[in-house]
Design goal:
CATH class of the largest domain: Alpha Beta
Number of domains: 2
Largest sheet: 5 strands, parallel
Oligomer: single chain
Number of helices: 13
Number of strands: 11
Helix content: 40-55%
Radius of gyration: 19 Å
Strand content: 5-15%
Distance between the termini: 47 Å
Low-confidence stretches: none
Structural class: alpha/beta
Strand order of the largest sheet: 3-2-1-4-5
CATH topology of the largest domain: Rossmann fold
Order of helices and strands: EHEHEHEHEHEHHEEHEEHEHHHH
CATH superfamily of the largest domain: NAD(P)-binding Rossmann-like Domain
Length: about 280
């Protein structure tokens, strides 16, 4: 039997695949762009065409599969877009479904992750919800444009603190639980980096590593939404989901620091300064 990895070309999924391969697991990667997946992983994995919105692709993706990494594509803002696949997986006697969820989502019904967790549980599929803190890669990804061009961080998090975590560390945890399904049946793990930072501290670290003066803009929710929809031309649904996440952050749900990563892997998670140093080129003009 093998592990199905959805979202394998994404920030987390690629690290899930790489870590599973290190553990000598058979891996099936599924996505809409099979050419890209083949280019990324070559003959080390099997590749299959897959789309959450096309049930005709489910059967092949679930053939000879006993464990699943479930990743909600960012453009699918409605949790019920994933329900048909979850129900299809239920019929295959999956030993473990590890869903990439969100820190604090067990107490917040706004983000789609909450309903997806509940759908997996209701289906009766053994689960391991992975609830990470804020991805460090979000700073080097979607928010890098303003850092590079304006020397500003455009995130509406107020003065709240965030316990960032590297996507590679998230992938390591997911592969750890999937490789030993029986040990992690019906669990939920909140994983973070080693520290909680506010965005003024993030700006200080970015300034130190890049040698430039980078400021935390701290926009209002309305200014943030307007900027990312009208200036950056991002999808409104996607921007609205990020607003919900930053609302949670302002409410203090992103500041907790856990030692779960160490307990599961025996390793220490990456610090934000080490991450910025490793990804310095993402912030250079």
């Amino acid at each position: 039997m093998r592990v199905l990895v959805t979202g394998a070309s994404g920030n987390v999924g690629k690290y899930v695949v790489m870590e599973l391969l290190k553990r000598d697991q058979r891996v099936l990667v599924a996505g809409t762009d099979t050419e890209r997946l083949n280019h990324m992983f070559g003959e080390r994995v099997q590749v299959v065409k897959f789309n959450f919105l096309d049930p005709s692709t489910f059967e092949l993706a679930l053939t000879d599969v006993d464990r699943v990494f479930l990743m909600r594509p960012p453009h699918l803002g409605k949790p019920d877009d994933l329900y048909p696949f979850i129900l299809a997986a239920k019929e295959k006697n999956i030993a473990l479904m590890s869903f990439l969820s969100l820190m604090g989502v067990e107490n917040n019904t706004i983000p789609p992750h909450h309903k997806i967790e509940k759908a997996i549980e209701k289906a009766g599929i053994p689960y391991a919800h992975i609830r990470p803190g804020f991805f460090m890669q979000n700073v080097s990804g979607i928010h890098a444009e303003e850092i590079k061009q304006l020397d500003e961080i455009w995130i509406p998090a107020g003065r709240s603190k965030t316990s960032f975590i590297d996507a590679e560390d998230i992938g390591t945890v997911i592969a750890t639980v999937l490789a030993d399904a029986s040990m992690h049946k019906n669990t939920a793990y909140t994983i973070t980096g080693p520290e909680a930072l506010d965005y003024d501290e993030v700006a200080q670290i970015l300034s130190k590593v890049t040698g430039r003066s980078i400021r935390y803009k701290n926009p209002s929710f309305l200014k943030y939404r307007s900027h990312y929809v009208k200036v950056r031309k991002l999808d409104k649904g996607y921007v609205n989901v990020t607003l919900a996440l930053y609302l949670m952050t302002r409410l203090g749900t992103a500041k907790a620091v856990t030692d779960t990563f160490f307990k599961l892997t025996g390793k220490q998670p990456k610090t934000f300064e080490n991450f910025v140093t490793d990804y310095k080129t993402c912030f250079i003009k």
